[in-house]
Design a protein that fits this description.
alpha+beta; two-stranded antiparallel ribbon; 497 residues
Length: 497
């Protein structure tokens, strides 16, 4: 039994209407479903295999690249001449991070210790840990400034101590020893008679206290009650704020622990985080949108005010005593040692700093820091944190080791911590949190488009059937089939007669 076109048109009309209705419902319901899926995947919950594994064990490539500023003219520096340095490196270390002592609390927070280990990657490095470089001796030049306001006899005694242990103003040692520690009789002496003066009770090295250690106990919100708070720090080592700085604002512990951020970002969002290594909270700002390994991202960078001094940016007054903009004085959280943090090569700092040292050439591509974040989830896709460690050096009366050194903030090393999501983790992330939401978003337009096309087809089918019926009706009226019989009878009769 043939189905008429009018019936087919009605069927297509109903199907098209349902498709449009379903697509329209998806327009309103789809984003809710997508957001709900994101919320379930980004909250800190052991039931969420993807995000919890990324948060707990950080199963992505992560590296620390270290560059040394090798001093070319140490003898001339002692005579008061301008320092000249040559950058050596990078010396690259694969970084392994994992969280332990994970404890969930009733107020929707979780506490943990994050440990880190470093493994030298010779194939990625320019040089070896056996390379010998010359840098300032922090034990001598740092201690000299720390003691410059002490009575003159004490400074003489300190200088005598340096001579006794054969400690000079500069160190010439292999990279590996400078990084992870070297034996020093002076260090042993200070630890025996002045315990707590140095950060390490063993070998003395620039990163000795970082390897096989943790960055303190963080307590962060899980986001299970409010996704806007996920990863935000509730306390660090039990503290709601620190006491290193001179203002309440500067002592605040803001943002996250620096690994993930709350989802649903926009271009007005910022990336606040607390850094135990810098002893303060920092905040990055939106720069531009882009794509990283097929995933849409927002790039966040350090604002020019990050290391500005109090004169250039009053809210930073609490971080003073300040020098030129571009330097952060971290002596208060580094045993009062005259240590400063900056961007590498004094990038984005007061140009006057570049005039005090020869051999520096800052540029944003090599020395600016950035984090690329997937805005819908708050998960970093590509990270490059670059910081420089500097030591204030100068001549101190009574301490002959300091010679006639001109006062200068001396670059020692700069390092870059970088990581990116890749491999199976990237594929799973892209599928669950990028591709599937995108498919659902496209589906609403596909259903609406197909529905409208089906409705249009149904209308055309219905109209064509009506037009054909009208034409057929006119033809049948002009030629009456019954008249052919009445005309045929006379002819037959004539033929018979």
């Amino acid at each position: 039994m043939a189905v008429s076109k009018s019936t087919l048109a009605i069927v297509f009309l109903v199907l098209g209407g349902l498709a449009v209705l379903f697509g329209t419902v998806l327009v309103f319901v789809g984003p809710i479903i997508i957001d709900d899926q994101i919320v379930k995947n980004v909250e800190i919950n052991p039931k969420n295999d993807l995000s919890y594994t990324m948060w707990k064990d950080i199963p992505v490539p992560f590296f620390m690249s270290v560059y040394f500023f090798h001093i070319v003219n140490p003898k001339e520096i002692l005579k008061g001449e301008k320092p000249m340095v040559i950058q050596r490196g990078p010396y690259v270390y694969r970084e392994k991070r994992w969280k332990d002592n994970i404890t969930f609390h009733d107020n929707n927070t979780v506490s943990y210790l994050e440990f880190r280990q470093y493994f030298f990657e010779e194939s990625m490095s320019v040089g070896d840990e056996s390379d010998v470089v010359t840098i300032p001796n922090m034990l001598v030049l740092g201690a000299s400034i720390m003691m410059e306001n002490m009575p003159f006899p004490i400074r003489i005694l300190l200088s005598t101590t340096f001579k006794t242990f054969n400690e000079g103003p500069f160190l010439t040692k292999p990279v590996g020893e400078l990084m992870w520690g070297y034996d020093s009789k002076l260090v042993d002496f200070l630890n025996d008679y002045l315990p707590g003066m140095l950060p390490s009770s063993g070998k003395f090295g620039l990163f000795a206290e970082f390897n096989n250690s943790n960055s303190g106990q963080f307590t962060v919100f899980t986001g299970q009650d409010d996704i806007r708070k996920v990863h935000k720090v509730d306390s660090w080592n039990g503290l709601k704020s620190v006491d290193y700085w001179r203002s309440e604002q500067c002592n605040m512990i803001n943002g996250t622990a620096g690994q993930m951020w709350p989802p649903f970002m926009n271009t007005e969002s910022t990336l606040p985080f607390y850094s135990p290594d810098a002893c303060r909270s920092m905040e990055l700002v939106y720069q531009k949108s882009g794509v990283s390994r097929g995933i849409p991202v927002y790039r966040f960078v350090a604002p020019k005010t990050l290391f500005a001094n109090g004169a250039d940016y009053p809210p930073n007054e609490g971080f003073c005593p300040c020098r030129q903009s571009g330097l952060l004085n971290v002596s208060t959280c580094r045993h009062n040692s005259p240590v400063f943090i900056s961007h590498p090569h004094f990038f984005a700092a007061d140009p006057a700093l570049l005039k005090t040292v020869n051999g520096l050439s800052p540029n944003e591509d090599e020395h600016g820091l950035f984090i690329d974040v997937h805005p819908e989830t708050g998960v970093p896709m590509n990270v490059s944190i670059r910081l420089q460690l500097n030591l204030l050096i100068k001549s101190v009366s009574g301490i002959s080791e300091t010679g006639k050194i001109a006062e200068v903030v001396m670059p020692m090393i700069w390092f870059e911590e970088s990581g990116y999501i890749d491999g199976p983790v990237l594929n799973t992330f892209r599928t669950n949190l990028v591709v599937l939401p995108m498919v659902m978003e496209y589906m609403q337009y596909i259903f609406i488009g197909l529905g409208l096309a089906t409705i249009l087809g149904a209308v055309m089918l219905y109209l064509s059937d009506k037009i054909k019926s009208k034409i057929c009706g006119q033809t049948c009226t002009d030629v009456d089939p019954s008249s052919s019989t009445s005309e045929k009878t006379p002819l037959l009769q004539a033929s018979t007669s």
